[in-house]
Here is the input.
Amino acid sequence: MKIVHALAAAATVAVAHGFGQSPQTVSRREAVSNALAGVAAISLPGAANAIQSCPPGSKNCLRQTWTPPSGTSAADATAQLREALNAYPQEGQEDGKVDGGGYAIVSDTLGSNASSGSLALEYKSSGKGFFAKSFNGGKPFVDDLIVEPNGSAFEFRSASRMGDSDFGVNGKRMSYIGGLLKGKGWSGVGL
Here is the structure.
């Protein structure tokens, strides 16, 4: 709904700026392009990545804390964590409807003692869905996942870079990874 309101506002601004100037011929394509550019400028926030805060009640990010079984060494916990993240299917889930464009580890500064650093991953949609075609030029949507140590636990934040809703994609991703960690005896909070 925000996009519709932003489109109307952008069109109003475009028309308003046209008045008071000498008449110009503008094609429908140019008018729509200008209005869509206005929508992007008005309604889409900058890259809201997972490194930033993920506020409660947000519809485009998810925060969870995962704790390895007691007695697990920091090195073993870090190895299990990396193993679970790397086990995520590169082709995504649900026949590519979730993360169908794959993922990549973009930064790994997590030490084997799990006391500092982080793991940062980038997940992409396939770019084939309606919203990617209609609102993102057929390019994949990109989400970020960051994992940071928090005492003996690890904090996960998964967030969409654009828009105010992720249509449940972050939850499905975290549920899959969480299932892998549960299988190793880990417990989670914020599920």
Notes: The beta strands are 61-67, 103-108, 119-124, 142-150, 153-160, 187-189. The helical segments are 2-18, 28-43, 74-86, 130-135, 169-182.
